[in-house]
Design brief:
Blueprint (H helix, E strand, L loop, with lengths): L1 H4 L8 H15 L1 H12 L4 H23 L5 E3 L3 H12 L4 H20 L2 H8 L2 H22 L3 E4 L3 E4 L5 H18 L5 H16 L30 H7 L1 H29 L11 H18 L4 E3 L3 H6 L5 H14 L3 H4 L8 H10 L12 H16 L3 H18 L8 H16 L1
Antiparallel strand pairs: 1-4, 2-3
Amino acid sequence: MDEHFKTLERGSSTGQELRAGLTTFLAMAYIIAVNPALLSEAGVPITAAVTSTCLGAGIMTILMGVFSNRPLACASGMGINAIVAYSLTAIAGGDWHASMAVIFIEGIAILVLVLCGLRKAIMDAIPVSLRHAISVGLGLFIAMIGLKDGGIIVADESTMVALGTVTEPTFIIGIVSIIISIILYAKKVPGSLLWGILIAVLVGIPFGVTTLPTGIVSGLDFSSFGAPFQTDAAGVMGITKALTTPVLLVFAFSLMMSDFFDTMGTAMAVAKQGDFLNEDGSVENIREILTVDSAAAAVGGLLGASSITTFVESTSGAADGGRTGLTSIATGILFILAAFFSPLIAIVSSAATCGALVVVGFLMMTDVADIDWSDILEGFPAFMIVAGIPFTYSISNGIGLGFIAYVLIAAVTGQIKKVKPLMWVATIAFVIYFIIV
C-alpha cells in the first residue's frame, strides 16, 4: 500500500491518511442532506437523490484517489444543483431528466477538453500572480462559507452582510467550533480539525443544533440512474430534448465554464494545503485530477445527482495531514457507507464544520505575500480575483473578473505581449459567459 500511495515518501502514514479522510468527509457530509433536498424541488425522488448523491460522491472520490493519488474529494456541487432545481428544470418544461442530460453533455464536453490537453494548457497560461490570487481568494471564500454555516455572518437587506445574532444556538456552536479548532491547531494536536468538528457536534446536542437521528439504516433507490436516457410523459428522452433545445445547450456552455475554472481553483487550494503546489503555482498530477473531475460531472448527470465536482472542503483533510489518494479513498468509502446510514450522518450540522473551514481559510492567506502589489498589471487583476471570489460567491466569477482585468491592463500599459494566446481564449470565453448567464 505504501509503495503505491507513497505515504512515507510524502511524510504521512496510513493512520494519518484515514483520519484526514474522515475530516474531509465530515466537512462535506452536509451535501448528503442538502443535495437531495434541492433536487427534490426539481422532481427527483428524494430517496433516489440520496442514493445517487452518496454513491456518486463515493465512487468518483475513490477514483480520484486511485488515479491522482492526491487528497481531493468529489460530490454534487453546490450552486449547480440549485440551478438544476430552480432554473434548468423549469426551462426544460419541468423535465428533470433533461436537466440531468444537460449536466451529462457538459461533463462529456469538458472531459474532451481535458483529454485534448486544453484545460491544463489554459492553467499553464495563467500568470503566476493570478495563481496565487486564486489561492487567497479561495481562502476567503472557504472562510466565508464556514462563517455563514456557523451563523456568524448573515444576509442583511441594508448592508448585504452582517454579524449574526450572538445568542442564536447556531452562532454559539459556530464560535465553539472555531475556538476548539484553532486551540487544538495551535497546540499541534494531531487531527485538530477533526476533533473540532466532533466536539462541536457533541456541544450542539443540548443547543438543538445537533439533532438526534430519527433512524440509522436507510434503503437504496436507483430510480434516477440513467436519467438522461429516461423519457418524459410524452416518451421523449432527456438527452434528445437537451440536444435539440438551443437554450439548454447555452446552459450547458455556461455550466461548463463554471466547472472548468471552479475545479482549477479548488485543485490549487487543496494543493497548497497538501504540499503538491509547485513554486510557479502549478499543481502536480493536474492532468489526472482534471480527468477524473471532468468524468465526475458526466457521471453526476448520468446518476441523477447533478454535476459531481471536486469539493473545496477537501482542503480541510489536506490541512489535517492528508497527502495521498488514500485520504480520498477513505472519504469515498464513507460516502458509500453513508448511502445506507444517511440518517446517522445527517446529525453533523454545517455549524460544526465552521471552525475547520475558517482555519483552512486562514492557512491559505499566506500566498498574499507572493503577489507583487506594486505592479498594476500583477496587483490589480489579483485583487479582482481575491475580492471577486468571495464577494460574488463564485470561484469562476472571481477568476473571470481577474482574467478580464489582466488583459485590459496589459493592453493599456503596452504589455499586451505578456498575454499568452490561451489566456486570450479564456478571457473571451469569460466575456461570453458573463453576457449569457
